[in-house]
């Protein structure tokens, strides 16, 4: 059915011209119809003759489409007898969609793979076979045999098209010339790029782009985008995939060269630029002048750009014809006036081709432009800077602490600084005695030319300038002369003078780690034999690597003692805790053990030893088995269809009671039990239907032969006989109601009786005594009371606050509801340590004041904030009229009343309070007395000019609140008028500062990254107010923007790293001369252990489970050499988490997960140990002996280099000895960045496998970042790598359904053809081929040794080596222990098994959400899947790696084709994020 549209005369003529073009039908100009997509053209065109016998079918629609219902099909019929040639389901895999184009690839299997010669065919299409992408509306289909018919060729054309002419060739070719190729027959563009390359200018021109014209004729024209470079030899490369004739015969391809001549306009032969190329100290307001060899004019719509060298950012884009560009009187030079440039910055000039040209009428004769960053570049000077440099950061801070007796001092300035003359002196603060005088030009001072100077006052420089450490616990001060340091403009730093300018205390941590808590606690009973044992300390710790340092479990036996040596390691979730494992079932039931810890088995991060436990009393426990009392029910209830049986102790959750053991009646009638589940101390019994309110429910339970309700000591619960179930479960959580503290005991009473708590439940409590956290070591329970035993006694008169945060062992009430968390609950302080006990007597009112709608009642001591009185207990009168109280808050020593309205200038105000014994109390539990008609001091009264908070920001322990007016600095409220909550827990305010329009609160501890924060402010007469006298409005629970970063906890030697994580600056490393693996001289940067460990520890404390620590090598280094002590890496790794150390050098990075290192081997290497050995990471860029083999192989291949080559290497170093590290326990990532255009389907990182001598793929992913392309690639070893582009193609892929994937996999050096030009996609793939392609796809190195175990594999071949690699990795197995049968065709189920094993090598973890059978259920031949491959086949189907051969058949024993093999490997690599296409 045709839709007629009214067309303009112009469009009609255009359509007539199109009718005349071979291979195409008329195109209708249409709009997207709500009724469905409309076909705008057919291929072959309607009624077309001479159609190739192997043609594909193609429909072009008026909008993007997708395939419709799976039940719809396309049909091809023979016209003369209406015989069906082929039926093609739209979801069969032979129909592909690309935007608005649908391509149908028939098999023509009934005709031997091709249509008959000189025969007419027609095509029908079911309605709904295609639908709109936009609204899902269906295509109407084709039901008429005359709509789409065509006739095949009389004689099949099997000859390739030949070229008869090409241009340009030879010398002196115009830089604006087009490329023309004539053929002996009409040809069509197919796929790929035409390559135009030279030594400096490489262009890839897609054949489908607008730069390529003439498709369908016998002449193809390629018009490059922009002028060519003058006097340059170009090579034109036409590949076999670029062009074909109407029968699909591919042009064989060719390449030739030509050389361009002089450009019509060139740069002047001398002094073409002002400022000159590479000029420095260029004034920031300079004009730029370019000179030509001829007169020129500026042309419209062409641009000049000033770009910054450091990041290629365009600073200014100037139209060539704008007033910012001026031609001189002779018109042979142009002056560009940019806006003022930044000082001390490198720039380059980019000029668009054609921005300048010969004057009219010769404007087509262009100046070719400037596209390189190195043609016209310069660096600005320091400008008109007259401001001297200032110090922005001191490290250690002034008056602060240096934590290492050999630590370095750091000054950070507001600009780059340089060294001049004079000395730095460090003296003892007490006596003024000189510690060391350091000439400013000494090697002890590093960082000139940067913003940061590092002063090394302690290390060895020479025999006359020997090492000397600071004295611990000693204060020093630093002086620096006023001519020692200057900026680039010659302004001098004022210096530091006197003993108060920069002083610091040296305090190195020499304290041993102290034990804080034990899990299980000392004296614990009923400890499970497979329980987790944990020792927690007061600082981060690490486990010794010395096998002689042991932790042992010891028990007394008749013969003496029996000892179990345990393994131990740092808790991955808490670096202050050590996990101790005696071994599964190593402990015996009903046995008392004590734990011994050798001195030095555990140390802190600076090496101080824990003294150990070498007695049998400090940590002893009894394993379960002693408890013989069965669990009993404490309560029960029913809600809906669920009955809860609540027992008095935790039960075994892994047991599964049978519903058959229970009998339930509801209102006297039986009710079926459908399920039973055990959780904690509760048995959940599920009924077949809901229970109505007030219905009587009874339950009986009979203990089976193997009881399934047991406590943790294996005691079985007894029978239940017709017990009544409470109808209606409570959802109210128990809460703390009171607490007392005395001596070493803290007693808490809760609102209901509690279930028997876990022995370790004490670890969830924090007891704060006078601002210091005390630790509990045990817990006892009786009804609604919990008693904690503390390690230390509470001093008398101290305020005690209790916090509870349930983690693994929550407290549970008899109702089955968990106790809610609470924070800073105030306990009544009893007598402690023989002291006199708490303060007695009622608190007394000190003052009463009012401001606006707020009344403040201040007492003589702090109040208990957990007993807030009600609003009804207060009466407020203003001028003898009652004012209602809407809210009551307690803050510190005051009660804040909020009135329902503001009081306007009253003459008298009075307040009364009606107290009781249970309301207002002080922190010691003393109740406040009632009072009547106390006079109120009036504040600002009706002043309505109040100011409001406009925002709050938290960074570390500083919370800054901003207001809309400047504040009066004489009104600074006390800490108690602010309430800060972080993660819903109160954080104490220790300081308040008013500055301008902000209030800065200092908290007692810093917030962590990402924690939720809120702040409240309760005003009083002495509260915040503006300069104008306006009061600050009260606010409650205002959201705070937590901008805390990891770097807020670090200073001096750290920065934010590119790509995330903590960057360590060169100032945290010692530089020494060294030679890279490629023989390049460069500085080796050896990181200071403490700096590296501090970065990891701070990241872990911030909650990061995968810390990323980055060292950026200075750009001036010719190679990257970065060393870290092995002991520092091991200490960091032992803290837990997935720590990665990254070395960055320019556009290359080397990312090393510490979990891939074998620290035992690294420590033993070169006869050293973990203290003497260092891990050295090296990056060498460019051509060298390390990269030469790779370059030789690339030069002999079809690939071109985009970035690289780069050699990455890891070595272990001991002094001057080095040894390469070749064994990694996983993949190691590297990255390369390039500003070049990257076609991801044609590009990959490759390496030269030294075993096979062939180029091979490295798993590569691409990501675009700010105009750059970043290639991330990973392997398990060291090597040289390069990012390359490869346009290789096979002649036999044509329109094959797998063409795009196969060509892409070949271009990435993963798959190979059977010959150099043919892939043979439909031929079966062999076991050897498939194993080879998987190994190369994973970046594995060949393994001839592993291959040699198979007698039928030639280990000396490339395929043999990769079979060995796949076998060594556990991906493939032999058909027997000595045979692999590499030439046997592989079945689809064998492929599935190999691919899922390969997925595990990549680190993928596949877990089927349901059974394997469920994923194979829809396939009728599922029973043909062998048992060994069943799970793997289901996993492959689940992941979409393997699809059915049809909708209902899987064909597991069918041989797979080479096309299927490539596609399935591609899908597996994509799922593993090992490939981007």
Automatic annotation (TrEMBL):
InterPro entries the UniProt entry points to: Cu-Rt/internalin_Ig-like, SbsA_Ig, SLH_dom, Swm_rep_I_cyn, SWM_rpt
Q: Name one Pfam family in it.
A: SWM_repeat
Q: Which residues form a coiled coil?
A: none
- Which UniProt keyword terms apply here? Signal
Every SLH domain range: 1285-1345, 1346-1409, 1416-1477
First and last residue of the signal peptide? 1-26
Q: What is this protein called?
A: SLH domain-containing protein
Per the UniProt entry, what species is this protein from, by scientific name? Paenibacillus paeoniae
């Amino acid at each position: 059915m045709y839709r007629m549209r009214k067309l303009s005369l112009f469009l009609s003529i255009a359509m007539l011209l199109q009718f005349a073009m071979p291979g195409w039908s008329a195109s209708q100009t249409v709009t997207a119809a709500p009724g469905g997509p409309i076909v705008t053209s057919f291929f072959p065109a309607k009624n077309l003759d001479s159609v190739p016998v192997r043609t594909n079918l193609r429909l072009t629609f008026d909008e993007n489409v997708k395939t419709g219902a799976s039940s719809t099909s396309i049909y091809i019929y023979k016209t003369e007898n209406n015989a069906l040639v082929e039926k093609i389901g739209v979801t069969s895999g032979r129909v592909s969609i690309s935007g608005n184009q649908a391509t149908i690839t028939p098999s023509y299997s009934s005709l031997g793979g091709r249509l008959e010669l000189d025969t007419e065919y027609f095509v029908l299409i079911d309605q709904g076979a295609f639908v709109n992408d936009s609204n899902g509306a269906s295509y109407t289909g084709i039901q008429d045999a005359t709509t789409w018919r065509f006739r095949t060729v009389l004689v099949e054309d099997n000859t390739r098209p030949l070229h008869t002419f090409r241009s340009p060739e030879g010398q002196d070719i115009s830089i604006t010339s087009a490329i023309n190729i004539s053929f002996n027959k009409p040809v069509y563009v197919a796929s790929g790029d035409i390559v135009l390359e030279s030594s400096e200018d490489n262009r890839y021109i897609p054949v489908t782009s607008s730069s390529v014209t003439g498709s369908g004729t016998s002449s193809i024209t390629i018009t490059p985008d922009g002028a060519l470079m003058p006097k340059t030899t170009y090579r034109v490369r036409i590949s076999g995939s670029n062009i074909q004739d109407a029968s699909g015969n591919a042009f064989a391809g060719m390449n030739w060269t030509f050389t361009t001549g002089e450009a019509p306009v060139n740069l002047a032969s001398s002094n073409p630029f002002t400022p000159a190329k590479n000029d420095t100290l260029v004034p920031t307001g300079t004009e730029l002048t370019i000179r030509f060899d001829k007169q020129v004019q500026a042309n419209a719509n062409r641009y000049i750009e000033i770009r910054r060298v450091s990041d290629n950012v365009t600073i200014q884009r100037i139209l060539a014809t704008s007033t910012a560009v001026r031609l001189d009187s002779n018109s042979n030079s142009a002056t560009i006036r940019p806006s003022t440039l930044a000082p001390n910055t490198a720039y380059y000039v980019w000029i668009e081709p054609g921005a300048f040209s010969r004057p009219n009428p010769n404007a087509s004769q262009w100046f070719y432009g400037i596209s390189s960053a190195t043609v016209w570049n310069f660096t600005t000077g320091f400008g008109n800077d007259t401001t001297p440099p200032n110090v922005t950061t001191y490290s250690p801070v002034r008056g602060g602490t240096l934590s290492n007796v050999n630590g370095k001092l750091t000054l950070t300035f507001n600009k780059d600084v340089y060294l001049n003359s004079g000395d730095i002196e460090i003296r003892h603060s007490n006596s003024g005695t000189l510690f060391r005088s350091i000439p400013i030009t000494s090697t002890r001072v590093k960082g000139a030319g940067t913003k940061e100077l590092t002063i090394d006052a302690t290390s060895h420089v020479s025999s006359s300038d020997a090492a000397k450490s600071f004295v611990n616990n000693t204060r020093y001060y630093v002086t620096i002369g006023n001519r020692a340091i200057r900026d680039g403009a010659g302004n001098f730093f004022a210096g530091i003078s006197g003993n108060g300018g920069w002083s610091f205390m040296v305090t190195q941590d020499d304290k041993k780690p102290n034990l804080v808590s034990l899990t299980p606690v000392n004296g614990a009973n009923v400890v499970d034999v497979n329980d987790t044992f944990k020792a927690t300390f007061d600082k981060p710790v690490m486990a010794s690597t010395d096998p002689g340092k042991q932790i042992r479990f010891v028990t007394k036996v008749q013969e003496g003692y029996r000892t179990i040596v345990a393994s131990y390691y740092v808790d991955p979730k808490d670096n202050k805790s050590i996990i101790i494992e005696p071994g599964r079932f190593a402990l015996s039931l009903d046995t008392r053990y004590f734990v011994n810890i050798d001195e030095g088995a555990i140390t802190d991060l600076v090496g101080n030893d824990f003294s150990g436990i070498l007695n049998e009393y400090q940590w002893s426990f009894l394993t379960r088995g002693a408890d013989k009392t069965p669990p009993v029910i404490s309560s029960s209830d029913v809600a809906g269809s669920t009955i809860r049986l609540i027992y008095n102790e935790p039960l075994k959750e892994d047991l599964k009671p049978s519903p058959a053991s229970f009998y339930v009646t509801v209102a006297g009638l039986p009710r079926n039990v459908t399920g039973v589940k055990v959780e904690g101390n509760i048995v959940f019994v599920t009924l077949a239907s809901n229970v109505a309110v007030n219905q009587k429910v009874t339950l009986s339970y009979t203990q089976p032969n193997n009881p399934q309700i047991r406590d943790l000591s294996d005691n079985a619960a007894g029978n239940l006989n017709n017990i009544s179930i409470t109808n209606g479960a409570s959802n109210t959580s128990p809460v703390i109601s009171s607490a007392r503290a005395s001596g070493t005991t803290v007693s808490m009473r809760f609102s209901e009786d509690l279930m028997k708590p876990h022995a370790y439940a004490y670890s969830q409590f924090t007891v704060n005594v006078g601002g210091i956290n005390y630790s509990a070591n045990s817990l006892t329970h009786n009804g609604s009371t919990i008693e904690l035993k503390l390690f230390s006694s509470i001093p008398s008169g101290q305020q005690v606050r209790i916090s509870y945060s349930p983690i693994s062992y929550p407290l549970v009430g008899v109702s089955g509801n968990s106790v809610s968390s609470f924070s800073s609950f105030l306990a009544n302080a009893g007598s402690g340590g023989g002291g006199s006990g708490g303060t007695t007597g009622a608190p007394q009112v000190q003052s009463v004041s009012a401001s606006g709608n707020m009344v403040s009642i201040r007492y003589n001591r702090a109040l208990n904030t957990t007993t807030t009185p009600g609003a009804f207990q207060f009466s407020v009168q203003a001028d003898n009229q009652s004012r209602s109280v809407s809210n009551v808050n307690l803050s510190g020593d005051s009660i804040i009343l909020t009135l329902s309205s503001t009081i306007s200038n009253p003459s008298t105000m009075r307040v009364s309070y009606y107290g009781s014994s249970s309301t207002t109390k002080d922190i010691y539990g003393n109740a406040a007395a009632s009072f009547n008609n106390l006079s109120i001091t009036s504040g600002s009264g009706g002043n309505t000019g109040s100011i409001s908070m406009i925002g709050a920001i938290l960074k570390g322990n500083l919370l800054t609140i901003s207001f809309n007016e400047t504040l009066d600095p004489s009104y600074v409220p006390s800490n108690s008028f602010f309430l800060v909550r972080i993660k819903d827990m109160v954080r104490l305010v220790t300081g308040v500062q008013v500055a301008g329009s902000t209030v800065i609160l200092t908290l007692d501890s810093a917030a962590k990254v990402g924690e939720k924060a809120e702040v409240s402010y309760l005003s009083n007469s002495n509260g915040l107010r503006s300069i104008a006298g306006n009061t600050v409005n009260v606010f409650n629970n205002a959201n705070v923007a937590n901008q805390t970063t990891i770097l807020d906890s670090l200073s001096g030697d750290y920065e934010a790293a590119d790509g995330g994580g903590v960057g360590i600056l060169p100032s945290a490393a010692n530089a020494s001369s060294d030679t890279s693996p490629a023989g390049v001289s460069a500085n080796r940067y050896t990181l200071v252990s403490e700096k590296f460990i501090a970065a990891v520890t701070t990241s872990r404390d911030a909650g990061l489970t995968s810390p990323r620590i980055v060292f950026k090598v200075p750009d001036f280094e010719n190679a990257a050499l970065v060393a870290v002590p092995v002991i520092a890496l091991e200490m960091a790794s032992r803290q837990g988490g997935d720590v990665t150390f990254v070395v960055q050098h320019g556009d290359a990075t080397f990312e090393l997960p510490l979990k891939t290192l074998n620290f035992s081997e690294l420590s033993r290497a070169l006869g050293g140990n973990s203290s003497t050995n260092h891990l050295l990471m090296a990056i060498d860029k460019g051509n060298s002996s390390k990269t030469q083999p790779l370059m030789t192989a690339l030069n002999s291949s079809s690939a071109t280099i985009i970035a690289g080559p780069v050699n990455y290497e890891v070595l272990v170093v001991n002094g001057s000895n080095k040894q390469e590290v070749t064994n990694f326990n996983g993949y190691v990532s590297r990255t390369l960045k390039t500003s070049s255009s990257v076609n991801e389907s044609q590009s990959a990182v490759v390496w030269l496998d030294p075993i096979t001598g062939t180029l091979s793929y490295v798993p590569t992913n691409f990501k675009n970042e700010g105009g750059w392309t970043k290639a991330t690639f990973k392997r398990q070893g060291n090597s040289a790598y390069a990012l390359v582009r490869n346009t290789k193609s096979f002649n036999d892929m044509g329109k094959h359904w797998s063409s795009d994937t196969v060509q892409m996999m070949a271009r990435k050096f993963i798959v190979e053809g059977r010959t150099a030009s043919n892939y043979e996609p439909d031929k079966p793939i062999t076991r050897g081929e498939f194993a080879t392609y998987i190994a190369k796809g994973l970046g594995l190195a060949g393994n001839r040794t592993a291959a040699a175990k198979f007698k039928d594999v030639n280990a000396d071949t490339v395929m043999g080596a990769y079979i060995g690699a796949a076998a060594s990795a556990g991906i493939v197995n032999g058909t027997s222990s000595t045979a692999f049968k590499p030439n046997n065709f592989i079945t689809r189920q064998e492929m599935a098994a190999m691919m899922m094993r390969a997925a595990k090598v990549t680190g993928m973890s596949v877990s089927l959400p349901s059974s394997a059978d469920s994923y194979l259920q829809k396939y009728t031949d599922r029973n043909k899947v062998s048992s060994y491959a069943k799970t793997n086949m289901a996993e492959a189907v689940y992941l979409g790696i393997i699809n059915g051969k049809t909708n209902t058949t899987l064909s597991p024993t069918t041989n797979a084709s080479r096309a299927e093999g490539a596609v399935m490997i591609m899908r597996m690599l994509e799922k593993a994020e090992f490939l981007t296409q």
